[in-house]
Design brief:
- There is one protein chain.
- By secondary structure, the chain is mostly beta strands.
- The protein is built from 5 helices and 24 strands.
- It has a 16-stranded antiparallel sheet with strand order 5-6-7-8-9-12-13-14-15-16-17-20-21-22-23-24.
- Strand 6 and strand 7 form a beta hairpin.
- The longest helix has 14 residues, at 2-15.
- It is globular.
Length: 467
Amino acid sequence: MIRLLLLTVGLVSCFNAWSSDREVVYIDSIAVTGNKQTLSEIILREMSIREGDTILLEELPEKITWSEQMIMNTGLFNRAQISYQAWKGETNEVQLLVTVEEMWYLYPIPVFELADRNFNVWWVDQKRSLDRTNYGVDFAHINLTGRKDKLKGSVKYGYTRKYALSYSMPYLNKAQTLGAFAGVGYWRNREVNYRTTDSRQQFFRSEEGFIYERFTGEAGITFRPQLQSYHDLELSFTQKRIGDEIALDLNPDYLLDGRHRIRYFALRYNYFHENRDVAPYPWEGSFCYGSLLKEGLGLFGERSGLTLFTGYGKYIPWGERWSLGLVMRTKLSIIRSRQPYQDNRGLGFSGHTMRGWEYYVIDGMDMAMGKSSLRFRFAEYNFNFGKLMPISQLRRMPIKLNLSLNNDLGYVNSPYARPDNPHSNRLLWGGGIGLDIVLYYDKVIQIQYSLNDLMEKGLFLHLSMNI
């Protein structure tokens, strides 16, 4: 806010000698500096200001601040700042200088990770078993050719054998509106979650070999006609195999009808509108999305599902230190026939989680949830590792510390619910307090003390590294 005020005062000072009919400025040129890997046109694509634009003087500071935030939301930079130079006299021309500090883009990371959905499930339910961990290497280059293209690979052993490779190129055409992506992956396990009982995952382990295998391949195109709007269309193929112990005995509904193999093509359309200041941890702005997924295109006759996912979030700042975040997400199964067990998720996976319910998985065809967080920023630091950090892009680490007051509501509709899963088809509540630690720009650690309407409480840890 202070920087925005100073920028406004500075611009007004530069143009206060002009007559009253000089209420606009002309963007004469935009230069970019500090980008060693990233192409300048990729940075300019994120700005709401273009060379040759004529902008009201009073709107320029806000457009500059918003453009800085959009550049940061690419995830490619530690810092982005736009400065200006105004030519006084008979012209009202402005030259902009975009200064960026690039992140470290290459992440060949040795992996030692938990196989369970979250830290608390592994620590409490699974008794901190090292048998439920994965080890290997994750490779990611998030800016391979300087065009914001991402190459990711993964080789993992342990609880899950995983081999995966993907590549995405967001900009293929000169207008930077069309992109493409593709990926393949193969997983196999000796142990599998075969059923849900009392809203807890039940597992079966085979000592004789791998009991679960999955292969996926996908390819698609992306379309970004405006800065804040994203579309993508994806075609994928999936094949799953399950051992006879699961298919015939423990849960014939795992793949439906006692199948031990299922194959299907799927078509998915996604729309996302982004208007948050900092996407990984928003303080101000909003987002919305919609996703329509058709699983089974009639080629194999083994799968038929049609699901709509939607979401909306609004973040309202109060002064410099307070912000209220409100998020709603839904899932609607349009095809109402029974779905395979593994595809009948309501709450407990991905972004469909509620605070206080981390130990539970609630299956169902439909789901609605609302989450709120009132946050207070009580400290902010800039830590410099100096020469102790050999990677120069990581030496300066901004740290933000926030307290949060959380409140969540959710409902899962499950027309095929079993009597031993009593938490579907009723209103759920969870909430509590937390400490949110934001490192660099997009690494978030959340330590939360939460409880639910069953009066169960505990300390929960959540990590989001955004690589």
